[in-house]
Amino acid sequence: MDKSFLWGGSTSAFQFEGGGHEGRKGKSIYDIREEKTQVKYSVTSDFYHHYKEDIALMAEMGFSAFRMSIAWTRLYPTGVEETPNFEGIKFYQDVFQELKKNKIEPVVTLFHWDMPQYLVEKYDGFKSREIITYFERYAETCFKEFGQYVKYWLTLNENNLAMMIPWMYIKDKNNYPKEEHAQLAWDCYYHSILCHFKAVKRGHELLPDAKFGNMTASAIAYPLTPKPEDVLATQKHNQRTMWDDLDILTSGEINPSFKQRMADEGVVINISDEDRELMADSNAKIDFISFSYYFSLCTQAAENRNNSEAETMQMLYQGFYNPYLSRTSFGWQIDPLGIRIFMNEAYSRYHLPLLVVENGIGVEDEVLTKDKRVHDDYRIDYLAKHIHQIIKTVDEDKTPVLGFLPWGCIDLYSASGNYNKRYGFVYVDFEDDLARYKKDSFWWYKKVIASNGKELEKIDSTDCNKQS
């Protein structure tokens, strides 16, 4: 492993930052969800007020990088203002300066799902081309105000999922009859990738030394059986959920099979000459591929499903559990080798460096002991096995990997809407003034980073107590 390998962790603004009603921040779709469900989203883990403490914890673990996102509504409260909110700019400048002081490289996501609510109300989010102008203005502001601090930029979080969940930013999906759903999904996706291309192009122009990437949700699938039909179904799944999007982002062109599938669903694809020029621009091409990886799945051809006794995965993807893999308490399959398979496949297709920006095990019943400890051997075991495969990917397969930034390095608010699902190395006590406590995995990860991934063995809990 190269000594420049980035070790750290990841969060997002809407799940970690808090301060939802401070600093003239506007309302995003998650603020509105909070008002409807009466959860304390505006507080979350309150990085807004705890950022120095949290960055100190990251530095103590030895982080060389920290992935975070910028809240669009903290810079542009409704998304359409002519000038940005200075209080928001000042907050992020303070955070970046604190990170740099602690020798931690910020890895910044421009858009991690927290769409300004005004853009939803007025334009149905990415449904309208109007949003491209506002996103470009927002991205340019980020590059100009924070470019001196940030080398690594990600555009839109897990945007390959956009066609599967177009309702995220729609004011009222009942406004769209069923026969329009496929067109709606394409329109939302298409306008979102134009936002991506605009941001990457402008970023390369303004920050020639910076690196720009996307962020892909990996959904690597295996055939449930060796039947040729299942193998073909698996190829189609992986193409549809991952490679179609990456093909466009890396080449600027939509592959013919994607176009045919859209045509079969009655979708009209209109690409202007100006859009083609943008997508083909060398300045609009990504420098690396970042991705999330939590689990793999199995697929099966439709004609074989009636005769299958396999258990169906109840997730976004229509898939089946792998009988050879165990699962987390949350029901996600544990497949460390899968991350290696995904990375090697992605590199063989696109020949771009890879960056792991999400990985980890979410646990809903984590216990804080009376002496304020969390004995999370399950997290250590999960992460150790994945890191082991990443190291093999680099050292044996010679696939370039820039770093490992597991998800929720300090406990945060789940995107599914609760505080109970925990990923972090640091426990946040949501019932006791958001106090922070180091888990056993904190000390283990500190050792992993110090050894550059060479020491993955579990630390005895008594040693953790001594260190704390």
TrEMBL record:
Entries under PROSITE patterns matching the protein: GLYCOSYL_HYDROL_F1_1, GLYCOSYL_HYDROL_F1_2
Gene Ontology BP annotations: carbohydrate catabolic process
Top-level division of the source organism's lineage: Bacteria
Single GO term (MF): beta-glucosidase activity
InterPro entries given in the database record: GH (IPR017853), GH_1_N_CS (IPR033132), Glyco_hydro_1 (IPR001360), Glyco_hydro_1_AS (IPR018120)
Active site: 358 (nucleophile)
Alphabetical UniProt keywords: Glycosidase, Hydrolase
Signal peptide: none
Family statement: Belongs to the glycosyl hydrolase 1 family.
Name of this chain's protein: 6-phospho-beta-glucosidase
Source species: Ligilactobacillus agilis
